[in-house]
C-alpha cells in the first residue's frame, strides 16, 4: 500500500495530523471515492492493522484516564483518606491505603467482600477505608444508615461485625431484619434504630456521594489503591498486583 493510503487509514482512526486532513479535502469527489476504495481493500486484506491501531488508541485513552484519575485522587486526598468518619480496617499504619466504595445490595460487592478480607489477612500492611455508597435504592440506603448508626452508637468493632453481616445478608433489608442483625450481634437495637435518623448520617452519605460524583464513580464496588483508581470488581490476584505496584513506585 502507498504511503498516502497508510496516512489516510491513520486519519480514519483519528490519528492523523491536520495537514493530512487538509490534503483530503483538496481531493475531488472521484478522487476521494477511489481513495476510500483503496483503504477499504487494504483493511479487508490486512484486518490485523485495524486491530493494532485500535489497541494503540485504547492504550492512549487508558493512559490519559490514568493521568486524569491520579490528579483527581490528589485533589481529593483528604476526603478519601482522612475524612474522620469512614471505617478503617486492616492495619491503620499500613504502607498502602486502599479505599472501597460499597453498596450492601451490590452483588459484585458481595463477591469482592471475602476477597478483600483475604487480601487483608495475607498482607498485614494494608489500610482499608470503607466508604458507604448506597446507590441501588431504598434498601441500600437503609442498610448504610444502619451500619453508620452502629458505628456511632457501638464503635468500630461493632461496625466491622455488622459490615460483614450486611454483606452476607440474603434477606430483604427491613427494620425487622436489621433489628435481628443487632440482636444476633448483642447490640442495642433500639439505640441503633433511633440513631439512624441522626443528621450526621445524612451528611456522611451525602459527602460520600458527592465524592463519588467528583471521582466519576457510578457503580460499586469501586476501589482506590494509593494513587490508582479502579472502577468495578477486581479479583484477589489483581488486588495483590495493584498493591505490589504501589509499593514499587
The major pleated sheet works out as: 5 strands, mixed
**Share of β-strand residues:** 5-15%
Overall helicity: 55-70%
Lateral arrangement of strands in the main beta sheet: 1-3-2-4-5
CATH superfamily of the largest domain, called what? Glutaredoxin
**Spatial gap, N to C terminus:** 44 Å
Global geometry: elongated
* Count of alpha/pi helices: 12
Q: What gyration radius follows from the Cα positions, in whole Å? A: 25 Å
Q: Pick out the low-confidence regions.
A: 1-20
Tell me what the CATH architecture of the largest domain is: 3-Layer(aba) Sandwich
Q: Count structural domains.
A: 2
How do the helices and strands line up, and which of them pair or pack?
Elements lengths: L2 H10 L5 H8 L3 H17 L1 H29 L1 H5 L5 E4 L5 E7 L4 H16 L3 E7 L5 H17 L1 H13 L6 H10 L4 H7 L3 H16 L7 E4 L2 E4 L4 H13 L1
Parallel strand pairs: 2-3
Antiparallel strand pairs: 1-3, 2-4, 4-5
Helix pairs in contact: 3-4, 7-8, 7-10, 9-10
Protein described:
The chain has 2 domains: about 5-75, no CATH class; about 75-249, Glutaredoxin, CATH 3.40.30. It is built from 12 helices and 5 strands. It has helices at about 5-10, 20-25, 30-45, 45-75, 75-80, 105-120, 140-155, 155-170, 175-185, 190-195, 200-215, 235-249, and strands spanning about 85-90, 95-100, 125-130, 220-225, 230. A 5-stranded mixed sheet has the order 1-3-2-4-5, sandwiched between helices. Helix 7 packs across helix 10. It is elongated. The protein starts with a helix and ends with a helix.
Amino acid at each position: 500500500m502507498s504511503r498516502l493510503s497508510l496516512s489516510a487509514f491513520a486519519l480514519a482512526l483519528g490519528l492523523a495530523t491536520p495537514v493530512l486532513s487538509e490534503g483530503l479535502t483538496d481531493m475531488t469527489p472521484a478522487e476521494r471515492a477511489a481513495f476510500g476504495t483503496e483503504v477499504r481493500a487494504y483493511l479487508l486484506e490486512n484486518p490485523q492493522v485495524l486491530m493494532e491501531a485500535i489497541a494503540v488508541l485504547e492504550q492512549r485513552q487508558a493512559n490519559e484516564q490514568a493521568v486524569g484519575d491520579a490528579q483527581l485522587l490528589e485533589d481529593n486526598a483528604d476526603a478519601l483518606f482522612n475524612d474522620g468518619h469512614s471505617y478503617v480496617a486492616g492495619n491503620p499504619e499500613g504502607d498502602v491505603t486502599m479505599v472501597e466504595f460499597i453498596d450492601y445490595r451490590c452483588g459484585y460487592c458481595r463477591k469482592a467482600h471475602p476477597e478483600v478480607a483475604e487480601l487483608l489477612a495475607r498482607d498485614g500492611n494494608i489500610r482499608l477505608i470503607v466508604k458507604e455508597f448506597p446507590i441501588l435504592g431504598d434498601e441500600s440506603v437503609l442498610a448504610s444508615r444502619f451500619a453508620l448508626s452502629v458505628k456511632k452508637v457501638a464503635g468500630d468493632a461493632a461496625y466491622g461485625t455488622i459490615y460483614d453481616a450486611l454483606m452476607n445478608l440474603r434477606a430483604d433489608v427491613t427494620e425487622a431484619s436489621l433489628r435481628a442483625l443487632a440482636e444476633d450481634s448483642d447490640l442495642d437495637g433500639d439505640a441503633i434504630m433511633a440513631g439512624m435518623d441522626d443528621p450526621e448520617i445524612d451528611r456522611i452519605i451525602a459527602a460520600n456521594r458527592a465524592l463519588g460524583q467528583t471521582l466519576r464513580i457510578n457503580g460499586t464496588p469501586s476501589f482506590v489503591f494509593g494513587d490508582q483508581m479502579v472502577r468495578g470488581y477486581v479479583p484477589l490476584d489483581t488486588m495483590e498486583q495493584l498493591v505490589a505496584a504501589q509499593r514499587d513506585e
